[in-house]
Amino acid sequence: MRKMVQRAANYICKRKIDRLLPGVMDDLQDYRKKSGTTGTQFITLWMSIQTIQKHRPNWILESGTGSSTLVLAALVKKLRKEHPDYQGKIVSMESVPEWFDVATKNLPEKYRDVVEIVLGPRQKFEMAMYRGYIHSNIPKHDYSFVLIDGPAFTDEAGVAFCADIFHAMDISSAPVMHGVSDGRASTVMVIQHLYGVRAARYWHGLYAARFSLPRIDFRNPDFITAKDFATSFLGRLDFVKFRR
Length: 244
Ligand SMILES: C[S@@+](CC[C@H](N)C(=O)[O-])C[C@H]1O[C@@H](n2cnc3c(N)ncnc32)[C@H](O)[C@@H]1O
Fold this sequence. Notes:
The chain is of the alpha/beta class. It is 37% helix and 24% strand. It has one domain (2-243): Vaccinia Virus protein VP39 (Rossmann fold, 3-Layer(aba) Sandwich).
């Protein structure tokens, strides 16, 4: 059932993308052949398109370069043409040198003016009671949209999470961080813990979640007090500091 929902939703989203960005499917096919990329599912790409169309972020951070980079670039170019005051740019982070070389070599010429691909080997990121991985070397800009599709998030201690969205809050001054996560349930779970379930709903059938998160200061040492951890009648603890 889950697979059927996912297949149908991907089919619908692919058609919507094809209609909105004519020619991008040919670019994707070509890029896939040359790069062997794992790709990003069309559901995630369509959620990203909708969010970017709505908020028109000037700085887009992509975590995990690949075919998704082409779709983001085609959209930014379209928006730039339609809105002359819009100057959107994409910083696309890749953690693995081999894939960085492949992506840099195969990014179509027509997208190079709106995309910068940056090599950033993964780096551990600790925030409060959570352990994640970010890309190192992320250039400092005012990002307000993040597509989470990397870096690898497991290690000798088990499953961590992709934390670029929280690192982006450190380096950007945007008050709200919009974004989409492709799969990566552990990332969405951290978002849900901090902001509540409504902030990023996730179903395996879609294998993606979108979010719009106000910036938080998760290093604030004050959140050890009992009032930041609510307890239910049945003894369930919830971390509620950032849900107010
Ligand atoms: C899910 S992939 C990112 C895919 C990318 N967003 C796209 O749309 O093509 C996550 C990471 O896997 C690595 N990767 C890319 N292509 C790969 C491949 N063909 N096989 C194994 N790993 C790959 C890269 O380090 C990449 O950042």
